[in-house]
Amino acid sequence: MLTSRSKRSLIAGCYLLLVFVLWSTEAHPHGHEHGHDVDYHAPAHYKFDYKVHDPHTGDVKSQWEHRDKDKVKGGYTIHDPDGSVRTVEYHADKHNGFNAVVKKHGHSHHPHVYGHKDAH
Fold it and tell me: In whole angstroms, what is the distance from residue 62 CA to residue 26 CA?
């Protein structure tokens, strides 16, 4: 089960990826880059990765992905608020579809008391 902080981190990562994709398509909307035509039927190739380590919020995560033609491989790691580290590695292709392996490392730590006892 994802905590609200983990959900926000995952949403933020997806949002950053979406912004990058939209930025790259708007930068060259007609398929011309410095006067060269783009072959839209050529095999797709890309690589990206990013890391976040924000000591103020405690947000620590990273993601990487690369694509070669119709094969995609990637993964991400996120430090969950309970103290554990979640790692997801995935791959996808037209024969096997999307496959992900999720691993959780470390022990979950939860406070013994939730909320402030003077909150009545």
Answer: 26
* CA distances (Å), origin 78, targets 16, 37, 50, 103: 15, 39, 12, 11
| Other CB atoms within 10 Å distance of the CB of residue 20 | 12
Q: Which tens digit of pLDDT belongs to each residue from 39-60?
A: 888 888 999 999 999 999 888 9
The stretch 87-100 carries a mean pLDDT of 95
Where along the chain do its domains lie? 43-105
Q: Are 31 and 41 in contact (CB under 8 A)?
A: no
> Cβ(75)–Cβ(88) under 8 Å?
yes
Q: Mean pLDDT over all residues of the chain?
A: 79
